[in-house]
Amino acid sequence: MRADRLLEDIVNGKRMTDEEFVKLWQEADFFALGKAADARRQKIFGHNLATFIIDRNINYTNICSCRCKFCAFYRTREAKDAYVIDREALWAKIEEAIDLGATQLMIQGGLNEELDITFFTDMFKDIKARYNITLHSLSAPEISFIAKISGLSIKETLLRLKEAGLDSLPGGGAEILHDDVRREISPNKISTEEWLSIMKTAHEIGLASTATMMMGSIEKLEHQLYHLHQIRDLQDQTGGFRAFIVWTYQPGNNMLAGDKISSLYYLRFLALSRLYLDNFKHIQGSWVTQGKEIGQLSLLFGADDLGSIMIEENVVRAAGTFYKMKKEEMISLIRSAGRIPAQRDTSYNILQIF
Ligand code: SF4
């Protein structure tokens, strides 16, 4: 079938096979792909809102034993600038975030052997006792590590964290869900199967999550497609992923080095992700790793959301990439892409339309 006919069928709801993904990657016109992804988005939503959230990313520790090759953030325990956050610093960060309109905290950090489950349950309970804010926190590798050093099962760990106030999980630590790639870029991190299994357990106990991908390090298209296939399959089973978020690898200050992926590759992949992931409602465009203009273009290539106005983002910044944005700027950016800006919460409820 010709690429344009195939795109038309997919926009109308046909599920894309892996072979068709490859065919469209190779043959479809760049703008035709963008147009199809946008048509699919329009069919799902029936409106032209583009959403964002205000949140703060708080890294509770930079001490990490995992030593991923792409990471510029982690430190050894002995490093001069190694830290574990104390309550005073935590309160100051949260209060500053709330003053700026934040509704969500992404609390994430390194895999630090000294921090077992009580560190997290105490921290979450203390936060919830003081503030009305959503905890979208701890990625799957952190959950696995906390379970291991606390001698608990994944399910018990998640249940205790949920009871202490954890609301949902970010999809971090997925990088590329293919073990050939994981062995190279993050050999000490959890496997594809473990990442998927933690997400499955989280969904089963009522913790929704997002699914992420860090593309553009050493992997090939076949690995990226395998990743999409895995998360689409799990979404068929649980329906627990709220969104798909693809980031691009930042080759600064780390062991892996290499080049940045081109924006054209990113946009082409984003459009195909919208069309392939027919069971995902929200697809996020990344202005944090791609810059504001490409973030804006992502809205024309299938994205319905631009993620967060990050009050603090240390991991991408440590790699030398730091785009900052104020709420007003986000609103005007979305407007000039021809979309209606709206602030959302973690569950994608609209809080305010601008
Ligand atoms: S990416 Fe996360 S797990 Fe890997 S070294 Fe950095 S902080 Fe540690």
Describe this structure in words.
About 45% of the residues lie in helices and about 15% in strands. By secondary structure, it is an alpha/beta fold. It has a single domain (about 20-354), classed as TIM Barrel, CATH 3.20.20. α11 (about 265-275) links the parallel β6 (about 240-250) and β7 (about 280-285). The model has no long low-confidence stretch (mean pLDDT about 95). Bound molecules: iron/sulfur cluster. The site of iron/sulfur cluster has 11 residues, from loops. GO terms for molecular function: 4 iron, 4 sulfur cluster binding; 7,8-didemethyl-8-hydroxy-5-deazariboflavin synthase activity; iron ion binding; oxidoreductase activity, acting on X-H and Y-H to form an X-Y bond; transferase activity, transferring alkyl or aryl (other than methyl) groups. InterPro entries: Aldolase_TIM, CofH/MnqC-like_C, Cyclic_DHFL_synthase_mqnC, F420, FO_synthase_su2, rSAM, rSAM_sf.
Question: Summed up, what is this model?
Answer:
With 354 residues, the protein is α/β, with parallel strands linked by helices. It has helices at 3-11, 18-27, 30-45, 87-99, 117-130, 140-150, 154-164, 179-185, 192-204, 221-238, 263-276, 287-290, 292-298, 314-318, 327-336, and strands at 49-59, 104-108, 134-135, 168-169, 208-215, 241-248, 282-284, 305-310, 340-344, 350-353.
